Every structure is written in C-alpha cells, then in structure tokens.
Please model this.
Amino acid sequence: MTSRQNSIKKTIAALGMVAGAFAVTAQDAQAADPIKIGTFLSVTGPASFLGDPELKTLELYIEKLNEGGGVLGRQLELVQYDVGVDSKKAITAVKRLISQDEVDVIIGGSTSGATMAVVPLVEKAGVPFISLAGAVAIVEPVKKWVFKTPHTDKMACGKIFEDLQARGLTTIAMISGTGGFGKSMNGQCTKLAPAYNIKIAISESYGPKDTDMTAQLTKIKGVDGVQAVVNAGFGQGPAIVTKNYRQLGMTAPLYQSHGVASKKFIELAGDAAEGVRLPAAALLVADTLPDGDAQKPVVQAYSKDYSEAYGGSVSTFGGHAYDGLQIAVAAIVRAGSTDKEAVRNEIEKTSGYVGTGGVVNMSADDHLGLDLSAFRMLEIKNGDWSIVK
Amino acid sequence: MSAEFLQFLFSGVTLGATYGLVGLGFSIIYNASNVINFAQGEFVMMGGMGTVFFLGLGLPMPVAILAAIALTTLFGFGLERFAIAPARGANVVTLIIITIGASIVMRGLAQVVWGKEFHAVPPFSGDEPITIAGATILPQSLWVLGITVLLVIALRFFFEKTIMGKAIIATSLNRDAAMLMGINVRFVLFISFGLSAALGAIAGILVSPITLTNFEAGIMLGLKGFCAAILGGLGNGMGAVAGGLIVGIAEAMGAGYLISEYKDAIAFVLILLVLFFKPSGLFGKTGTERV
Model:
C-alpha cells in the first residue's frame, strides 16, 4: 500500500514537473513515466498463503529497486488486484491491467486456474506475462507471451519417483486433493510413472475443505504391496492426511508435494510430520545448503530481506514472485526499453539466472527453464527440514 | 474387512459428532425465533480461532478455552442486540439475511485481526491413537463424542426442567401467547443467541485439534451442521445430533466403499431423499404451521 501511495505521489510529482517545464519533448516526458508492473494475486481466500507472500515480496523489492534509482532511470510502479481464487475476477483484473492501467509487464496469477483463464487475453494483447502458478500446462505447449517461475507438478513427480527408485520402491498409492493443484499433479504423476517403472496401485481423492481422510487412507492400507504413499495437494488437506496417516499407524514412507513446502505444514501436522519427504526449492533450507551451492547466497539474502521486512519465515511462493520480478527487470534492462516485444524476447533469452527456485535457462521452447536439480528432496526431522543425500 | 468397517465407522462418528454439535446451535436459535442463524458456522470458527489467539497470548489451555467461549458468547449477545433486536418487526427471511450479513462481517473481522493462515489447537489429551479391534481413534474424537453427549443431556434438562428453557420453547410455539403469559420475549431471544454462540464455540474448540481452523473454517462446518439440523428435524436437539451422525457416517462409508470423489454428493443425496419422504426431517414435528 505504502509503495503504491509513494509511487502515486511520485507520479504526481513527475506530472507536475512535466506541466511546469512545458517545453520538454514527448521523449523526456516518457522517460519520467514509471515502469508499470501489473499483478493479480490471491491475496485473500483459500489460496491466500500463496498470494500474501507474493504481494509482500513484490512490494518489498519494488521499493528496494526504487530506492536504488529505479530501472533504466525510471521508477517502478506496482499495480495490483486481489482476485481471491476466482478466475472471473482474474480475467477482469487482467483486462484492466492491459487496457486501463497499460502495464508494461504482468507478474502474477497465484493459482493455475487464474493463470490459465487469462492466458488468451495476454496472448491477444501481447504483454509479457510471468506466472507464479504451478501447473505444467501453463508453459506446455509454449505460448509466446507466457512464462513462469515455479517448479511444475511434473518435476515434483519426477523428483519423488527418482527418490523412490533410489530406495528401491516400485508400488505406490496416491491420494490427491480434488482442487486444481492436486488434480493436475495426480495426472502428471500417473503419466510419468511408467517412465520410472512405478506402479500406482490405488488412487484416492479428497475435497479441498475436507477435515478427515481416514476413510481414504484405510482403503489404501487395505491394498497389498503398497510401498509408499504420495499425497498431491496443498493447503491444510495434506496436514490432515499426514495426521490421519499416523493415526492409522501406517508405516510406508509418505511423500508430500512441493505444494506444502512451508514451515506452516510442520506446525499444523506436528509430530505426525516426522519422516515425511517432499521435493522443495532450496529456499526452505537456505542455511543448511552446502557452502559451494550457487543458490545459497541468493536464497539467504531473500530470506533475510523478507524476514526483516515482515517477520515470520519465508515460503517458496514469495520466492517465485522474487524470481519473476528479477527476471522481468533484468529483461527490461537488457532490452533497454519497455517495448513489449523486446522485453518478451529478452525474458525468453534468460540464461544462468540463479534464483530462489533454481538456475533458470529459458529458450524458445522452454518458458520455465528449470530442471530436476532445482528441487531438493527434503525429509522432516525433529520438526525441521533436512536434505536427503 | 471388519477392521476396515470399524475404521470407517469411527471416522464417520467423529465427523458426525462435529456436524451434530454445530447443528445443535442452529436448533436452539431456531427454537427461540424460527430464524436459521447462518452465522452459526462463524461462532464455531471463533471458538477455534479464539483459543489459538488466547493460547498465543500465553494463557494456559483451560483459561484460553474459557476466554474463547466468553468472547464468542459476547458476539452472540452482540449479534442479537445490535442486529436482530433493532429489526424486531421484520419477518423471518429478513432476519435470516441479517445473520448472513453478520457471518460475513465476523469472517472479515477474523481475517483482519487473526490473519488468513491455518492454525492447529493442541489436542486435549495427547495425539496417541487408541486401537480398538484393528481400527484406531484419536483421544480427541472421544472428547468430541463425550462432550456432545453431555451437552445434549444438559440441553434436554435445560429445555424441559428450567423456567428459562420452558420460556424459550413457549416463545417458539407462540410468541404472542408467550408474551401474554409474562415471558420476556426479547430476553429469551437474547439468551438463546448467547447460548448457541457458546455451543458453537465449544464445538469449534473441540474439533479444531482434528480439523485445523482458519477464518473460513466456519463456512464448511456451518453448512454441514445446517444439513445435520435439517436432516434431524429443525429445532430438535437430539435430532440434530442424530442427523449429524448420519451425514458423517454416510460420508465416511461413501468415501470408503464407493468413490471418495463423490462423498459430499452421497451425503447430500441422502438429505434430499429424507426431505423428499419426510419434509420435516427425521425427528421433526409435523404439520404445526401457525396461521
């Protein structure tokens, strides 16, 4: 809010200057205009744990960039809309961002649903768009103007299956939330499983607001030969699954997805979370990363900045926003302007960018640019994350 | 197979007792005023979130629980005094709409004051599951069941044996006659809102170690509790609990033996069927519509 007010003040000041010096050319006037970064996030509602840190991160770093003199000598201005988890609101917000606010680049879309809903708009208007949502469908097939920073559910499946192979486990059960995230990840895992010689013996589901999953887990328990259970979902569901899992005395390794990669999960699931494994970005284990790790300085700095500004611990979701902003700003700098086509081309050329999510190498047919090494396999030990070697 | 069945039953009973407790709150206000209080779910949320808040202040668990119940009861009184009482002359539908408004306000307040994150209340007596014939149940589930039974008995006593309880019943049967008999109808309404807020809070505190809680937790619990109350027959406390158990067990069995994706649908189909054949609910009074 304050950064917005600040930038409004600055805009007014800039307008004043333009009005005062009437003789300035149009070129100069444009140079004083702020670079507008549009965003639409799930700041409230069930996905607020995504949107809230994302917005805070964007506000924090835009303020920092502005204090450092802005980008290309111009200040940055954040235009934000809260869209809850309503795709219709997301569409309205993006329409406004494009035609009314005339933003130069859009970073946002906390959920895959909101992102996919606005893709046609963005593609038609030709605005560089960096999504902060998980689903692989956002960048596969490649869309000209659409990029994303978070790891995909497909990568999470790959990472989990890699770990299963290393432990010699081949038969698994899946339990998935019926929300977009759980559904999508379930689909990706099912598709990917044969490539890793993994058999999914049974697949159960639960609603995003369900409060008891013992029935589904009992069913899984009754299936012979299940060596591990994979839970695809985010929000509070996986915490309840984990509690119910221990309640039923199930002992097969339990895997969660990157969707619950925040300290909150450990807090909610309590002791039941011990031994749970999940793939997650390096950000979560910033301090336990080995010293040579390229990501260590980046994630430590972000972690420090965020905690200092807002208190509390970082989540990977804020990190996705950080990466999105850095990639966009770097592209604007390289393009030397906010010409949308040029910025888009530069985003696509992003290579070797070390972010909170991993090392990003984008190309014309990869608008994500991360590989499996971006994920670390973590295990919850003594109420904290530890890296599985 | 039988252990499996028992496990589904335990899950269903735990869920069902929760729904029943919420349903009880609906019944009390309905009894007193014929109003369906759609802020009941928010009372439940406030119980859970309030406990989390007071625990966060460093209060010991029992004190935090009492404080949360007191806070929620205050909100119940406040809702009656500042929203329902001023609209005294209005018809029931208007009052119901007022409660929907109140629920949105309370949800918003909770979101602003307590934040949007999920919280867990620590279980009352440990997390170690109890094994019975191959199935497991959490100690907290026993707390939910036990306190539900106690509350039902206490409420029955209250409504049948005490002057205040009888006054509430009398008011629900015929408001004008009750007034002529010297019952302070406004006070009856006031008390019943406070009472059902307290009940809601107790339900919220009991279940949040199992279900977790956040500012929106009341929506789902309120809806299911409403279903329980309808199924059992609105205004009937025992009916609400029985209705809750039926919905809970149907959900658990549906998820266990049929397809888990359709478990909510199973519960709702059941309710539709019951209402189709017995419109006043399983235990509801039939055909006493006043003219």
